[in-house]
Amino acid sequence: MSYIFLPKDASKARLRDAENARKNRAEILKAFSQGKVTRRELIKWGLITSAGAIAPIGGLSPFVPSVHASGDAGGGIPTGAPPSPLFGVLPFTAPLPRFDVIHRGTNPLGGDLTPIPTAESNQTQQPVPQILGGGTGPIEGRPPGPIWAHQQFAKYPPRISCEVSQAQAQTNTVYNPQVDPQFNSGIDPAQPIPLNFHPQLPVQDPNSVWTFNGTIPPKLIQGRYMEPILVRHHNKLPADQSQNNGFGKNTITTHEHNGHHGAENDGFTGAFFFPGQFYDYHWPIVLAGLLSINTDATDPMAATPNDAGGNDKIPGDWHETMSTHWFHDHMFTFTSQNVYKGNAAMFNIYSALDRGNEEIDDGVNLRLPSGTAKSWGNLEYDVNIMLADKAWDANGQLFMDIFQFDGFLGDVMTVNLWYKPYFEVERRKYRFRILNASVSRFFKVAVADAQGNEVPMIFIANDGNLMPSPVILTELDEQGIAERYDIVLDFSKFNVGDKLWFVNLCEHQDGKKPAADLTMAEALSGTSSDPCVGKFLEFRIVRDPAQPDQSQVPDVMIPNPDLSNIPVSRTRTFEFGSGAAQPLPDSDPAAYTVGEGGVRGPWGVKVDNNQMLNASWGRISAAPAYGTREVWTLQNGGGGWDHPIHIHFEEGQILARNGKASNVPAWEKGRKDVYRLRPGGSVTLTMQFRDWGGMFMEHCHNTVHEDNAMLVRWEIDDGGAPFLRPLPTPIPTPQGVTFVPPDNIEPTAF
Ligand SMILES: [Cu+2]
Fold it and tell me: Ligand 1 center to residue 508 CA distance, Å?
């Protein structure tokens, strides 16, 4: 059994060997990531196996016993990478930084943005750096022409702008948490915030970490229904791909995770853009079903909060209202590296039901914990939480091993990108929107008091969706990568001066799947070999609230949409497995990003009874007809792994686990967008395909699996117009995007 990281009490010699192996390996990975050596060459030299795993050579793989290790551990116990040094920093010594709220401009078509956003991609030419091939290329990287024009741009013109950059690590001098310091553990937003993982840990080099605007804390966009946002995302990463400190790709594509938007705004994996370019993402934020349900906007439950404390009615099905989203990179074969490097942010969507004001009592507002000062979007008691395990090298610089194809684990727990912080709270209810933003790690969160007792939580939302009814839990379920769990925690039962902790009960030994769910006592005992088990966030109850807590958690929140009258037009199966081995033609777009041979597993997806195939964004694996409902079964092809599968675009309802409706737990009875298969398991779900068209994706959100061929493209076909049938595949280059016909269409796709 190999642990990813060596225990802290490993012998000095063993640690030194592991560090040398890590360094040697990092040199190879760096050369690979920078395009100086191909995967085929690495295989030829015997450095990696054809399945992609690093070859078992001493001094190269930290998992191979060295002379020292074979002596001190009974011969042949594999060693791990050296633990990330903490430089003497203790847990719970830094405040939890609240998210940095991105500025909302209110004049996107008349001055916020230069040039003014356009329905079709802006193909104005600019010089391209020599290192990217020279010549000229378009200023916007979105594919050109009508196929990738913003759908319904004239009908839903942007009313808000958010302008952001992907950029090298730098100090934040414009932090705006949108709450006073008393709600931010005393953090003074006027103080510059260097980019490090704790105020006493080393500052990250510009190319160790690439985040939104190059800064921390992580970013938050606040949006509301029917107030379309234009997100202009600039790529300010180095044009020279060798400037990446060993991992991370300088081309990006930004996925608004489960946005119900047109595919041109979905961050399609093959619609990436280059340094020096921008991409305009149009997020209309509409209720699903708006073209067929409540089209005249008369239902008072389908509404969006206005600035005056009231509601404006909107079309669509209010049972499809969404709340907690995130957005992140979706670059083909590089998603894991780019998200780990910092391309991850959150997006709170506000509605009349979930408006972020706990005081307004209008018969629609659920009055969940938030605050009262503003008509909507109060954050005082509504806290975004981003969980991510990280690792760093001997100098404290962020480190990733891009050849851990089972999945990459970090050994340091961060919350909102700081190492094990504390958060000051009042004696009242809070909402926490917990995002698992890891590469491969699952969490299982519980709350402990000082005696080690579990404190109940009210589970209110799974993924982006408020539950039909809240569920009281003392331990949350295992939370897969990209899943969001919203909970309400009531501190009023405790005293000023008390402390509580978020505790991770889920132990990993590798990136394949959780190894064990520990009891609270086991997790607190400190005996787990996994350094990310145990307490990771400390709540300090510091005062009584100045105003009485008016927030509620109603017994009924958002019942599921009624699908009983909607016929099921198709069923499909998707098996997530390994061993896919279809050679891709040289013309396949997948070859473009990864050099000769394209992506070669070790993972793959088998659709219906077709072949198990590697990923290619040129292949259409499923093409549901526009306006229909289908039932999809997601099957785990093996028992050795867990796969959290994400289907883009519309919320699904889980009908069965392992074939039985009775296997679906209470907390999965709402709507979902990530479906955790569990080892050997299956999930049967139903979803609709409406309102928008284009090409979307379905993939494992263990992003290492996703990047190594566990991804398919599917698309919504509307019978010919306005989309072509099937859609042409975009091939981005710095000089412009061209289109080719899909090079492969699965026999059961249409
Ligand atoms: Cu997976």
Answer: 15
* Better-predicted residue by pLDDT, 481 or 400: 481
Q: What is the whole-number distance in angstroms between the Cα of residue 464 and the centre of ligand 1?
A: 21
Ligand 1 centre distance from Cα of residue 702 (Å): 5
Q: How far is the CA of 705 from the centre of ligand 1 (A)?
A: 5
For 47, phi then psi, to 5°, come to -85, -30
**pLDDT attached to residue 331:** 94
Give the whole-angstrom CA distance, residue 257 versus residue 436. Answer: 13
Mention every residue, 6+ apart, whose C-beta is less than 8 A from residue 422.
92, 93, 94, 95, 96, 185, 537, 538, 539, 540
Residue 375 CA to ligand 1 center (angstroms) comes to 41
Q: How many Å lie between the centroid of ligand 1 and the Cα of residue 420?
A: 27
Give residue 681 CA to ligand 1 midpoint distance, Å: 12
CA 224 to the chain's CA centroid: 20
96, 418 in Cβ contact below 8 A? yes
Query: Per residue in 575-604, pLDDT tens?
Result: 999 877 665 665 666 655 544 444 556 789
Burial bucket for residue 38 (CB in 10 Å: 0-12, 13-18, 19+): middle
Instruction: Name the helix (H) or strand (E) containing 15.
Output: helix 12-33
CB–CB of 245/177 below 8 Å? no
User: 29 C-alpha to center of ligand 1: Å?
Assistant: 22
Q: What's the pLDDT band for 640 if we cut at 50, 70, 90?
A: confident
Nearest alpha carbon to residue 574 among 678, 711, 480, 478: 711
Ordered alpha helix ranges (H), 676-747: 703-707
> Quick one: pLDDT at residue 401?
80
Q: Could you read off the pLDDT of 204-221 as tens digits, one per residue?
A: 999 999 999 999 999 999
Ligand 1 center from residue 641 Cα (angstroms): 7
Q: Residue 642 Cα, ligand 1 centroid: separation in angstroms?
A: 6
Between the alpha carbon of residue 670 and those of residues 113, 153, 459, 556, the distances in Å are: 39, 31, 12, 12
Mean pLDDT, all residues of the chain: 90
Gap between the Cα atoms of 143 and 401, Å rounded:
32
Q: Check the CA dihedral 609-614-616-618 and report its sign.
A: negative
Check: CB of residue 346 under 8 Å from CB of residue 357.
no
Q: Among positive and negative, which fits the CA dihedral 327, 332, 336, 338?
A: negative
Between 27 and 560, residue with greater pLDDT: 560
> Can you tell me the distance from the alpha carbon of 69 to that of 78, in angstroms, rounded to the nearest whole number?
8
Q: pLDDT (tens digit, 9 = 90+) per residue, 650-703?
A: 999 999 999 999 999 999 999 999 999 999 999 999 999 999 999 999 999 999
d(CA 700, ligand 1 centre) in Å = 5
Q: What is the CA(33)–ligand 1 centre distance, in A?
A: 22
- Return the higher-pLDDT residue of 82 and 689: 689
